[in-house]
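Crash report, auto-generated. Payload:
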Amino acid sequence: MATTIQISEKTKKKLFMIMNQLEKEWGRRVTYNEAIQFLLKEEGRDFNRQEFLNNIRKYQGILKPGEGKDFLKELRMRDYKRDRKFS
Amino acid sequence: MTESFHNSAIVIDTGALIELLEDSKLGKILSEKFLQNPEIERYYISPLTDTELKYIFCRRNGYEEAKEIVQNFLKDFIICSENHLRDEVFRLKCEFPISLADSYSLAVAIILKIPLCMKKEEEIQNNLKNLSARVKLIFIDDY
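Recovered output after restart:
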């Protein structure tokens, strides 16, 4: 059920800027409700452990043993070599 | 070993998340000791961790799929904004011979004054004493 809250003009302007930013990112219209939900999530205030763990479980084992480590090692090694070249 | 997290938040490093994605022994430790720990309610990552994970999946699955997989996987993590971190990152990078990615994870922990959970790495171990004076480091390998 929708309800009314009072916010200052300054807060409303800031919220509107965030909505604009989100609209660009998400490629669709964003409501004030969605913008506030986004900010609450950013602050970690709407954390639900069960949902969090259920989501994580879907990805456990998505990479083969050593697969992610090898890609990361390769990426960081390239950066390290580039670093050394400039120092 | 039990840890107490009075500030209810922690930073997780790329290496530790990869262990989770590979479902290794260390990944299971991360899950059991930290992700399932009821004392922790906010899980932060650096923007570079987001990028590194996307890079890994991009190499494996291509750009579009990588973006989707990592966005969904990280949906309950808080990605600390880069503009809050950059000054601390250049200070760390200037003072310690550590990677830019490690500097970003350390900067999140320093700025938010919360522990950083990571896997042991030579670069970090070599500077452990000085880094530990600035930030609480937790190694999943120690459990």
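Post-recovery validation: The two ends of chain A are 61 Å apart (CA to CA).
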